[in-house]
Structures are given as C-alpha cells and as structure tokens.
Automatic annotation (TrEMBL):
<comment type="similarity">
    <text>Belongs to the 'phage' integrase family.</text>
</comment>
<dbReference type="InterPro" id="IPR011010">
    <property type="entry name" value="DNA_brk_join_enz"/>
</dbReference>
<dbReference type="Pfam" id="PF00589">
    <property type="entry name" value="Phage_integrase"/>
</dbReference>
<keyword id="KW-0238">DNA-binding</keyword>
<feature type="domain" description="Core-binding (CB)">
    <location>
        <begin position="75"/>
        <end position="157"/>
    </location>
</feature>
<dbReference type="GO" id="GO:0006310">
    <property type="term" value="P:DNA recombination"/>
</dbReference>
<dbReference type="InterPro" id="IPR044068">
    <property type="entry name" value="CB"/>
</dbReference>
<dbReference type="InterPro" id="IPR010998">
    <property type="entry name" value="Integrase_recombinase_N"/>
</dbReference>
<feature type="domain" description="Tyr recombinase">
    <location>
        <begin position="178"/>
        <end position="386"/>
    </location>
</feature>
<dbReference type="GO" id="GO:0015074">
    <property type="term" value="P:DNA integration"/>
</dbReference>
<protein>
    <submittedName>
        <fullName>Site-specific integrase</fullName>
    </submittedName>
</protein>
<dbReference type="InterPro" id="IPR013762">
    <property type="entry name" value="Integrase-like_cat_sf"/>
</dbReference>
<dbReference type="InterPro" id="IPR050090">
    <property type="entry name" value="Tyrosine_recombinase_XerCD"/>
</dbReference>
<keyword id="KW-0233">DNA recombination</keyword>
<dbReference type="InterPro" id="IPR002104">
    <property type="entry name" value="Integrase_catalytic"/>
</dbReference>
<dbReference type="GO" id="GO:0003677">
    <property type="term" value="F:DNA binding"/>
</dbReference>
Length: 393
C-alpha cells in the first residue's frame, strides 16, 4: 500500500492509503466544535474522488454549531422561533406572563411577515422596512415586534447560525410626541361621585355592588400603586392603627392563560417593594374594608371575590369602565390614577419624591411617562423681569 499526504485548508493534513481492493482512502484529523480531534476518512476510486468524498463528509460536520443545534441559515424562521421559546423555558429567567406576551407578539406581529422566510433571507433592510411599516400603524406594536425579533435573531447569532443580528443595524423607532394624561382634582371627585352613586344602588345595573370598587380607587389614589399591586394587598400589609397609617406594596396579581388568578410575591419588579404612608381618605377606605372582610387571617386579601380568591385586574378595569360610562365619564383607566398621583406629588414636592413614591429607580421614567407637564411657567419670572427691565419713572 502506498502513502502520500496533502493539506486541505483548515482541516489539517490529509493522508492517502491505497486499499487492497484498489480503492483509495483519504483521511485526516478533524478538530470538532467541542475542541476534540477526530479521525475522519472517505473512500474513492482515485485520490481525487476520495478527496472529494472527504471534503463532502467534513462539510456535513458543523465546525461552529453544537450538536444539539438543529438550525442552519436555511432553516425556516418558525423553526428559530420554536427553538427560541424552548431556550427561554430552559433558562427559566423570564416569568410565565412574559413568555405569553412574547408568544402573542411573535404570533400576531412578526409571523405574518416572516413565517415564509429562511434565516439567511432575513437581513437589515427587510427588518428595517418591516418595523417602519408597522410603526405607521402603531408605535407600541412596532416596539413590541422589535423586542421579540431582536431576541430570537440574537439566539441565532449566539448559537452561530447567523454571523450578525440584523436588528442591531435597523434605524431607531421614534416615539410620537405625547403628554401623560392625568386627572384634575375636580375630575377625581367626579369619578368618586359616580362610583358612590353606583355603589349605593341609585344606578343599579349588573351584579349588586359590594363596595370594593370605591375603596380600590381610594387606595390607588393614596399609594400610586398599580392595579395589580393594589389587588395583592393583604391584611398583614396594612397598618391603620399607628399614628402614621401605611400600606406595604409587596406583591401583584397575575393571570396566566389557562390557570387560576393568583398573587405573586413581589410587585412588577422586585426593587419596587416599598411601604407607603397613606392619606386619611385611603386609611378610612381601608378601615371600612377591613371591617367587612370575613377572613381574619394575616394572608387574607384586602380585595377579593366572595369566595376569598384574588380579583382579576381585567374584571376591575371592566367594572370601572362600566360604572363611569353610566355617568358619562370616558377615558379613565386604573393606570391614570397612578399618573394623577405622580403629577400631584411632582407639583407639591418635586420629581424625586414622585419617583420614590411610584417605586422608580430613575426619575426620568417618572418624568417621561407619568407626569403631566404644566404649560404655566413659574410666575416668579414676571417679578424678575420687572426688577430688571422696569421702565424708569
């Protein structure tokens, strides 16, 4: 048997063996993706045929991808999406609610435009045009689509299926100019009056009022808490007996598709746990609610169904909208009370205090999303200009 050697690119040195049956064996040591060298060989009628067969066999092996990765640049985009969701569940770092939102956004916003494409067909220009077209319909929809598209394609880059993430180079989305909406004191009292009118039965419609809606609104106004955080308040979170009544915001209500609504043991973010001193109108509403609460255990929810289970945020939103519609008041949402509180505290005590009350670590979030800007400039400027430019008498 004869021997000879030839070097092929980065695959290393190739050796040839003349087999007893007259065929030629080409073989080489191949460094696999896991860093181990393995012997790979192929047979052909001639050295050229054997070399060609060896190259084909090496091409089938993945130098860059782990064996578990079944994706390639020619894989359909839906295969990447399925692989991405499996990876998210494996990591376990996002909540079930977040997974459901990702799935919704991918299915309703991204898939209609990308379902028929392979990964190699998804480039910067296509992603950029897609987001711009979507942004014409809705900035928020485009923002949500951008998040899930970036994350899914980012996984393809990390697993070395794609060389780069096209989402890294799309043009930025421009948020439409908007001013956070907040209620005036007169509008707050109009909302209170409408709820009271409904709760005392003067505007009876639907299930008999149980008095909770008014108390929920008073707690939102007195704490700035989100609706889910308010519905998660327990007996043990409330202190209305001390000189400074307070409520601890330490959880939120979550509703997963196909599962019962339950209390989560931290607010929207773990850092937003806080204890809030409450005003007298909130303390009064809480005392009244505690007096009517049948369950005396510390873990009992302050606001609950007749069976003691958690209320859903959607049902409270629906009930609030129904009651205010009866009074001819439209456009009021539970989150608007949070912005109303932020605006009032900013005017009375400054943005830092407003951010602290809302549980924000960055006051810029409070300014951008929660505080209604006043168009009235501080009147002190008129006095200053009078002092500088007053006409000589």
């Amino acid at each position: 048997m004869g021997r000879d050697r030839l070097t092929i690119g980065t695959f290393g040195e190739v050796g040839y063996l003349d087999a007893a049956n007259g065929r030629v064996v080409a073989r080489t040591r191949y460094r696999d993706w896991d860093g181990r060298n393995r012997l790979v060989q192929a047979t052909g009628d001639t050295r050229k045929h054997a070399e060609r067969a060896l190259k084909a066999k090496l091409a089938e092996r993945s130098l860059f991808q782990p064996a578990e990765t079944v994706l390639s640049p020619d894989s359909p985009f839906p295969d990447l999406v399925a692989y991405w969701f499996e990876d998210l569940e494996l990591e376990g770092r996002v909540t079930k609610r977040t997974l459901q939102l990702y799935e919704r956004d991918m299915r309703t916003l991204v898939m209609p435009a990308f379902a028929s494409l392979t990964l190699r067909e998804i480039g910067v220009a296509r992603c950029d045009q897609f987001l711009k077209q979507l942004a014409k319909q809705s900035y928020n929809r485009a923002k949500h689509a951008r998040v899930v598209l970036r994350l899914a394609l980012g996984l393809a880059v990390r697993h070395e299926v794609l060389q780069r993430n096209p989402m890294d180079h799309v043009s930025r989305l421009h948020r439409p100019e908007s001013t956070p909406s907040a209620l005036t004191p007169a509008e707050v009292n109009a909302v209170r009056a409408a709820i009271t009118y409904w709760e005392v039965g003067l505007s009876y419609s639907g299930p008999r009022p149980d008095g909770q809606l008014g108390a929920i609104v008073e707690v939102m106004l007195g704490t700035s808490a989100r609706i889910g955080e308010v519905l998660a308040i327990r007996r043990c979170d409330v202190d209305v007996a001390s000189a400074t009544p307070s409520i601890r915001i330490a959880g939120t209500i979550v509703s997963h598709r196909g599962e019962s609504t339950l209390r989560q043991d931290h607010p929207k973010t773990a850092k937003s746990r806080r204890t809030v001193a409450i005003p007298s109108f909130t303390a009064e509403a809480v005392r009244s609610r505690l007096a009517r609460l049948e369950d005396s255990s510390p873990e009992a929810l302050l606001f609950c169904t007749r069976g003691g289970t958690a209320l859903t945020t959607n049902n409270v939103r629906r009930q609030l909208r129904h009651v205010l519609d009866l009074a001819g008041i439209t456009g009021v949402t539970p989150h608007m009370f949070r912005r109303t509180v932020a605006t009032a505290i900013n005017e009375q005590g400054g943005v830092d205090l407003a951010a602290e009350l809302l549980g924000h670590t960055d006051p810029r979030i409070t300014i951008q999303h929660y505080i209604r800007r006043s168009e009235m400039v501080n009147p002190a400027t008129a006095e200053m200009l009078d002092r500088v430019f007053a006409k000589d008498q």
